[in-house]
Amino acid sequence: MPDEQEIVVVTILKDALLFFRDYFRPIMMLTLMINVPFSLVIGLERLAKLPDILNSFLLYLSIGYSFLVFPYAMAVHVKLYSQIALEGEYDIRECLIYARDHYGPFLFASLCSIAIIFIGFILLIFPGIIVSVLLSLFPFFMIFEQMEPIEALKKSVSVAKYHFWKIFGPTFAVQLMIMIVTLSGPFASKSRGIHIYLASVFVDLATTLLSWLCVIILFRVYYIHRSSQEENRENSD
Predict the structure, then answer these.
(1) How far is CA 236 from CA 155, 161, 223, 228, 231, in A?
(2) What is the C-alpha separation between 42 and 62, in angstroms, rounded?
(3) Given Cys at both, which of 109, 191, 204, 234 links 39, Cβ 3.0 to 4.6 Å?
(4) What is the pTM of this model?
(5) DSSP secondary-structure letter at 186?
(6) pLDDT bracket for residue 1 (50, 70, 90)
């Protein structure tokens, strides 16, 4: 018989999948607007052999995307989820504007998180994984509760340690899916051509959508915490 922890993990994954299905349209629209243009450019090396200088440019562009654009995309998506949770509807334009206006603090928190996780992986792989789980909830505290970056990172650690397996279990399952999609795609081959290029863009799209599923899992865990806090306040009153 499955224990209670396994049931909770499966329930969180199921809820995340249902949310992903119900709001696939805005999630896909944001992915096409923010992520896919970079995939189209970065994947050019799959189209034909490029000069070394252009390959270097694409490498730097890929690194810049990871450090500068992805935090913006994360803020847009978490703002979208907050609109759905708090208002029952969404406005994509408002999400984009919000992320633009709050980009600085969000970027700072993301870079701090990346630096701490990197140090964890230098020490040993398991501390890196543990730290990445503990810091994973900070976007929700910044957007839902308007916390400053450092405060949100600290709050994420204090909350995530009580929900470690709720976060790690479902996200690990999705990360395995991402790994399978990536390894089965054109990245495993050195071939070039229009079909390889288009396949690489499609794989990027699929893995990006799966990464947003991970964020939805975090959103679900955050709301478990939020609901328990509200219930405790009601009981104390």
Answers:
(1) 22, 24, 20, 12, 9
(2) 7
(3) 204
(4) 0.88
(5) G
(6) very low
